[in-house]
TrEMBL record:
Gene3D superfamilies with a match to the protein in the record: Vaccinia Virus protein VP39 (3.40.50.150)
Domain of life: Bacteria
Name the record gives this protein: Transposase
Short name of one Pfam family: DEDD_Tnp_IS110
Domain Methyltransferase type: 186-282
Cross-referenced SUPFAM superfamilies: S-adenosyl-L-methionine-dependent methyltransferases
GO molecular function per UniProt: DNA binding; S-adenosylmethionine-dependent methyltransferase activity; transposase activity
Residue ranges of domain Transposase IS110-like N-terminal in the record: 8-146
Biological-process GO terms, alphabetical: DNA transposition
């Protein structure tokens, strides 16, 4: 099949970079949103600029999993010629380059498509059952990530870093403790290491977390042996507690697990509501660089899944 135009597409989660080549000459580059609206507008603009049909075009892109899907669907509906190639094969064909940007990668893919046009293997949609298996596999991978994130509080404080964190946090809390008994609300308390410690010191502790499994785990460990503890599932953004009841509030998880600013403000508003006029709120946050520092020190810097956790 003879093609007039060769499109190199660099695919990312949010954007698509198109480089258009005619022969071995790059004509232009354009970046659009990786969604139906952005792709549809690009195809419309393309027809106006080139005055050609999609049948004369070859669209070449690297395989990037689910991020390919919006473009593949749109091009297939237009009966376009699509070539999905392994990134390693494109790299081997072109060789190493000093500069690497989305725009440069798109141009490299366009020239790869022109150079290897006789070897193009046109993409066809997978059978429905294969597509379903792919979706289920991807969903399973995302659920495994979520489970890993939810289980982190169960083991974090047992690590060398965690032991140091717990001891340092206890010292900070101790600075503001008054004579027992105080009414202390541990909101978003994970599996309750600080609630158990405070109850042992004679305080009335109201422990809560949004994850039922964490609450059940804490209840099974301490619920019957420490009568001074009230245990429940609570959303820190909408607490069921009465107004003006807390001498001391601990906010560990909510202020760094909730990534939306409005959610964090709701947490602080609720904490202020249940806090006595003479009460004290201890809020704990994590530096925005903590994830990077941990990745560098633990080796997770080489784990792509670690850096994609925020997309879960």
């Amino acid at each position: 099949m003879q093609f007039t135009y060769f499109f190199g597409v660099d695919v990312s989660k949010a954007t698509l970079d198109f480089a258009v080549a005619k022969g071995n000459q790059i004509l232009f580059h354009q970046q659009v949103a990786n969604d139906k609206k952005g792709i549809t507008q690009f195809i419309k603009d393309l027809r106006q600029q080139t005055k050609t049909s999609l049948g004369q075009c070859l669209f070449c892109m690297e395989f990037t999993g689910i991020y390919n899907n919006p473009l593949l669907k749109a091009l297939h509906q237009q009966s376009a010629n699509i070539w999905v190639e392994r990134a390693a094969h494109i790299q081997e064909s072109i060789g190493l380059t000093r500069v690497k940007t989305d725009q440069v990668d798109a141009k490299r893919i366009a020239l790869f498509a022109y150079k290897n046009r006789d070897e193009a293997r046109l993409w066809t949609p997978p059978r429905a059952v294969i597509a379903q298996l792919d979706r289920l596999t991807a969903q399973r991978a995302r659920l495994v990530k979520v489970i890993k994130i939810l289980q982190t509080p169960l083991t974090r404080l047992k690590s060398p870093y965690g032991i140091l964190e717990e001891e340092h946090t206890r010292r900070l809390i101790s600075t503001y403790l008054q004579a027992a008994p105080m009414d202390i609300y541990d909101i978003g308390g994970g599996t309750g290491p600080y609630s158990a410690w405070l109850a042992e010191a004679g305080h009335h502790v109201y422990f809560s977390d949004i994850v039922p499994h964490h609450v059940e785990l804490f209840k099974s460990r301490y619920g019957s042996s420490k009568p001074g503890i009230s245990i429940g599932v609570e959303d820190a953004r909408q607490l069921s507690y009465e107004d003006n009841v807390a001498d001391l509030i601990l906010l560990n998880g909510p202020l760094y697990h909730l990534i939306d600013r409005q959610d964090r403000l709701r947490v602080l508003t609720e904490a202020k509501r249940i806090l006595k006029d003479t009460g004290l709120l201890l809020g704990f946050s994590i530096s925005r660089f903590a994830g990077l520092i941990y990745a560098l020190s633990s080796g997770e810097v080489f784990n792509n899944d670690y850096f994609e956790m925020e997309a879960v």
